[in-house]
Design a protein that fits this description.
It is a single chain. This protein is of the alpha/beta class. The chain has 2 domains: about 5-235, Spore Coat Polysaccharide Biosynthesis Protein SpsA, Chain A, CATH 3.90.550.10; about 245-345, 3 Solenoid (UDP N-Acetylglucosamine Acyltransferase, domain 1), CATH 2.160.10. It has helices at about 40-50, 65-70, 90-95, 100-105, 120-125, 195-205, 225-235, and strands at about 5-10, 35, 40, 55-60, 80-85, 110, 115, 135-140, 155, 160-165, 170-175, 210-215, 220, 245-250, 250-255, 255-260, 265, 270, 275, 280-285, 285, 290-295, 300, 305, 310, 315, 320-325, 325, 330-335, 340-345. The N and C termini lie far apart (about 55 Å).
Amino acid sequence: MRLTKAVVLAQPPSFPSGAATRGRTRLPPAPLLSVANRSLLSHALGWLAAAGVQEAAVVIPEELAARARRAAADSSGSVSLSWLEQRLDEPLAETLDDLTGFLDGKPFVLHLADSLARRSLQAVLAGAAEDNVEALLVVDEATQAGRAQVVQLYATAGTGPVTRRRLHHGSAGVAVLRGRALEGIGALDAPAAHVLEALADRIEQRGGHVRTCCAGDWWRFRGGSEALLEGNRFALERVRSDYGCAQLVDTTIQGPVIAHPEARIEASTVRGPAIIGARARLRDAYLGPYTSVGEDAIIEGAEVENSMILPGATITHLNGRLEASIVGVNARVFNDFRLPRALRLDIGEGAEVGLS
């Protein structure tokens, strides 16, 4: 099956329909989360481009559209992007119903933009049956252990009415669907996080065939800072060194490290896997494995390991090593040497800092 089109649902899992307000969250919506200095939306578009997808429609809440467009600006590769902005009071199903013309009856990939894969789409689908299959769901092998069936959303008890089962959570956030899979979807009632399972159930109810295939080497964001750090490690595990053009002064590089040509690293040790963004500055610092440093971030007189330092953050003169931490955009972590002595924090929204 040749796949040239994709639909990307770049939405918070709990994006409500018709809600007047939203609660504030500690972390940005999943598609905009940064992992190894790239948003999950950017990772998804790059993965689709590598699979030969030529056109993608990105479905995005209108309030996130500007941020999403910036995140996708340098990541779509050869994929031509169309943007479908969902109004605050518009159900997701109604938005998806508008995609019929874009898909033109062709098979397509539906991606929830909240996961990372090491294997290509072709490798994941290799050997999967295609004949008479209207939907092929990719499931995370790690979460499927001990489960015999993924798509089991409804069950009957004797001759009684159909009752809803608890949704399984084995989906990897990706599915391959025939073009007609979205026909009449306007009546579908499902949150973005479970739209794949709900679609599969609807297809089976009307007599269509749904199959699943397991994918290893997969990570999907399930919520929380620990999960995000796990995703950062997952993304960095296959980093290949590329720091030759960075400004290095009296610096030791150990292991696989990517450093942007505009990064400057002085009198420091960097031990990979790690990634350092544009205009980031490290001085008298130790940067340990599984750490990403965003653009314009500063680390001086400090040790950082297994952490995510987001763009514009500053970490200076710490007495101890910063580990397993997420430091938010434009946040500051520093020692103030005035009396009384104290460690002072100026933390941006969504930041988590672990000190020991």
